[in-house]
Design brief:
The protein has 19 helices and 16 strands. By secondary structure, it is of the alpha/beta class. Among the domains are: 145 residues, Chitobiase/beta-hexosaminidase domain 2-like (Chitobiase, domain 2, 2-Layer Sandwich), CATH 3.30.379.10; 248 residues, Alpha-Beta Barrel (TIM Barrel). A hairpin with a 2-residue loop joins strand 6 and strand 7. It is globular, with a radius of gyration of 26 Å. The two termini are 33 Å apart. This is Beta-hexosaminidase bacterial type N-terminal domain-containing protein.
Amino acid sequence: MRRNFTPVRAAIGLVALAWIPAIAPTPARAGVTPATLATWPIVVPTKASPAERHAAEEFREFASKVAGAKSPMEIISTDAPPAHAILLGKAASLKTDDLGEEGYRIRVDDGRVEIAGGGPRGTLYGVYAFLEDDLGVRFLWHDATFVPADRATRAIAAGERAFRPRFAWRYSYFGVINAHPAFAARMRNNATTSAPELGGNSPWTLISHSVPEWVPVATLGKEHPEYFSLVDGKRRAFMKEDNAEDGGTQPCFSNPEVKRRIIDGVLAKIKREGKASGNVSISQNDNTQYCRCDACRAIDEREDSHMGALLTLLNEAADAVAKEHPGVFVGTLAYQFSRKPPKHLRPRPNVAIQLCSIEACQLHPLDDPECPLNVAFCKDLEGWCRITPNVYVWNYNTNFASYNSPCPNLDVIGPNVKYLAAHGVKGVFMQAPGNAQNTELCELRNDLISRMLWDPSHDDRRIRETFIDAFYGRAAGKVKEYLALIQDAARKSGVHQGCFGPAASYGITADVARKGLAILQQAMADAENPTIRDRVEKMTISPRTVLLDDLARWIQHHGGATTQPPADLIGRTRDDFRELLRLYDRHGVDRFSEGISTDQIRGIH
């Protein structure tokens, strides 16, 4: 599992009846403009929550800018608002009991704007929706927000609309989302912060490898080898973390003492943390050394899946949890050896499955019937969705071997999210370079991922076009040309590739990189100011990384600069590598790959 802490497309609306898609408002009546709003007070209830107050502050900041107001709008707390006002949260007179925790309702007329949500995040998200959809604001990056200069006197559509997000749990796993919780809230990610002014986060947490917490091989392996997996006739009472495929172990999930330790440990953890909702994880180690003892093998053979023994334990744990903590789910990973759904077993109602797509192809949509890697994944996902409504997905959106090499998956992100939504998936963790800052196209990818997770009915291509136009200004045309070159090269190559590999394995050759670099250099010349030029210059890191692919492979294999590359490789790459390091420093790039920081490679050459 990578994290570092962590065939026919269905219509989305056919599932998840609780999802309320955005409803287009009725035509505007004259007089309601941003300039008019800027003269009205923003009203919050007298006992406003921190999130309602923050929503008012966000509304004031950006609505005032759109209106070109000379002074900021007034925020007042009152239960008797004036005739003309913006009413937020419980100050509004809107129905909210059908909106869940994060849905919102917006009403606009000649004298009022009312925005209210079913929970603190709902009101805050409603404000962000109004700022973007009605006033033209676009949140781009933690330090970049587009505010239109021509909307002050444009009429705002009148009427009422409601929205409730399709996914209950949304996590765009980029370094910037983890480092800037206020920006994460603006992008409607709900998995990163408990700050009350940002509405708190979802009670759901990422399901990850957890069984070592209760069955640690380091302390139990010597005296109790029977607690661990039997492989090739021997108990693997050790963990070799540096080689997850060949090393490591799993608990013997059919062993009664292993079950007791895990179930007792889970119950104690829930009590200790005071959980009343959300989930607790019981999930395998990050290797494929599952137990082949007679008891485990009998269950797995009966179920035609190596999830058999693990799910048997999960169901027992879920029964115990349901008795003492009825609002808490027990979650596990369907990952590698446990990905296939069982033939007969069914998860308990309080068991959640988080399916992982690590073997899937990043260059083709998940539901592409011509992609063999993805056909297999879809078969498993649809199988799980048939036997439980509690399916979450861990999806991969980067090249772990080279964070800054082109990862040509922009065309598939939108279709993938739509596919997951259509099949009833409850929440999605979109893993990107979460342990790094300023990786390849992180700004565009985060925008696309976050907006599609918030509303899968969006047109993903329009999201991309709008972002590129706003973020790259006059250089946008050449940026689009570069992206088309990279995407087309990958598509035409005919390769299938997951989340590890050199550039060539994604269909990106040195010739493509040279053409791409030339396009981006033209884009830099088109840039209207230093900020835009810098944004484009950062993009040149990707084709430059491809042109250093031989050195990049050496670095990945050797783990940094512990030894020096061969003399001929140094001679061929010295100047280009120094330029790459200069760009790293200038643009705050802190990692070469998932496991190698930029500091680790500075000694090369």
